[in-house]
Specification:
With 422 residues, the chain is α/β, with parallel strands linked by helices. It has 18 helices and 18 strands. The chain is elongated and about 70 Å long.
Length: 422
């Protein structure tokens, strides 16, 4: 990747490496068991690449106040099982226990530190700039015992905190294999993708979907933007279809303060780019826990819209099949309810069978791809959620900016600080 240091540029054998990851995972609240280890498996290539270093892993799980905010012991244990190597764990981040444990490491050993968000500097403070994060005491402490910083925390790269962006001018920051894979994979969606190019945008976060749609249209090479899920419901509403108060209120409540801005984006898309948009032509509502199909002529409805209908899927299928590039982010339905998983599963099947490049935009969509065992049929399955949407929306990414800053500082000085260039 241009403008950053990557693992292909350097040999880090024998060095102490701070390795920042985002392995934030769904957890079963009562047992603390990890329900999905996809993000842990995604960092294996980088861990293997760093097999002759003293590797110190920094990660987070959820945030204070949430039921799944826990230490990293379960992540450490699961990683040890996955890679079949010892992974030491210490319930400390930058205190005496952590520092001594890092100093005691030998080449080839791995140490997993505790949830960095248990440190108030990491989560309890807002930072206006990357430079502000460099002033945190956690950074001053850790750089004293580390030679280099490697990041694979793509899923948090739209955020700013000391362990994400604070090392840029202190020690060389290097892009891990997962970070590099994510950026290269998602860049296809933003830079001259094969045509025709279709983007399928769904899920509950209509504001995210609309930001992505606006950026793709602005770049001028998108052929179809298909809206499904709650995003599709909102676009139908903006197009003049009365989706019923229950569905309007859900959208209003879900967007909160972002509603007015998102509504303006939706209205502008309808008025200025209707020729590029694909909207649902039929739907499925829940009535007494049953799936009931309705057409747009049946609107408004007093029941929640939980899925797209068969006619919509029949119209979407040839568009996906004929596309050179497909970007899909966000379910088409309330797929956690079996009776309403149909639309989402059918789109998943269409993408799995497509001949074109298929890019899955992270979050629930990525988790579904992993659960159904079809990741191998996708060109790129992102581990990001909000970060993927931010990247696709063309927004600034603090972690990527930190990598670029570090490159400008250290790229010509690696040999002086004991790092061998390849």
């Amino acid at each position: 990747m241009e403008g950053v240091l990557s693992l292909s540029d350097v040999n880090l054998d024998g060095l102490t490496v701070l390795y920042r990851v985002d392995v934030n995972s769904p957890i079963e609240p009562s047992s603390g068991e990890l329900l999905d280890d996809g993000r842990l498996r995604a960092i294996i290539p980088t861990i293997e690449k760093l097999s002759k270093t003293k590797l110190v892993i920094l990660g987070h799980q959820s945030r204070p106040g949430k039921s799944d905010f826990t230490d990293m012991s379960a992540h450490s244990e699961r990683l040890q099982l996955i890679i079949n190597r010892e992974v030491k764990y210490v319930s400390d981040i930058c205190g005496k226990l952590a520092i001594q444990s890092i100093k005691d490491l030998s080449d080839g050993e791995i140490l997993f530190l505790d949830n960095v968000r248990m440190n108030e500097e990491e989560y309890g403070k807002k930072y206006k700039s990357n430079e502000d994060t460099e002033k945190a005491s956690i950074i001053d402490t850790l750089v004293e015992i580390a030679d280099v910083y490697v990041t694979d925390a793509f899923a948090a790269s739209h955020r700013r905190s000391p362990t994400l962006t604070g090392f840029a001018s202190k020690i060389p920051n290097i892009c891990g294999l997962l970070m590099e894979k994510e950026i290269d994979g998602l860049r296809i969606a933003l830079h001259n993708p094969p045509r025709p190019y279709i983007s399928i945008l769904g899920g509950a976060k209509a504001d995210d979907s609309l930001r992505v749609a606006n950026n793709l249209i602005k770049k001028g090479f998108i052929d179809i933007v298909a809206f499904v899920g709650v995003a599709g419901n909102m676009m139908l509403w903006a197009a003049g279809h009365d989706i019923g108060e229950i569905n309007k209120n859900f959208i209003r409540d879900n967007l909160g303060d972002e509603f007015d801005n998102t509504w303006n984006h939706a209205s502008n898309l309808i008025s200025k780019h209707r020729d590029l948009l694909f909207l649902p032509s039929d739907l499925a509502i829940e009535v007494d826990e049953n799936r009931v199909p309705i057409s747009l002529d049946d609107l408004p409805t007093d029941f929640p819209i939980y899925d797209i209908g068969i006619q919509t899927l029949m119209e979407l299928k040839p568009k996906i099949k004929q596309s050179g590039c497909i970007l899909w982010n966000g379910p088409a339905s309330y797929f956690e309810l079996p009776k309403f998983a149909f639309g989402t599963i059918e789109i998943l099947n269409m993408c799995s069978e497509a001949d074109g490049i298929t890019i899955i935009g992270g979050g629930h969509t990525s988790a579904l791809v992993n659960q159904r065992g079809v990741s191998k049929f996708m060109t790129h399955n992102s581990t990001g959620g909000g970060s993927t949407m931010s990247f696709l929306s063309g927004e600034r990414m603090p972690v990527i900016e930190a990598l670029k800053k570090s490159y400008s500082i250290f790229s010509d000085k690696l040999s002086q600080i004991g790092i061998n260039s390849k």
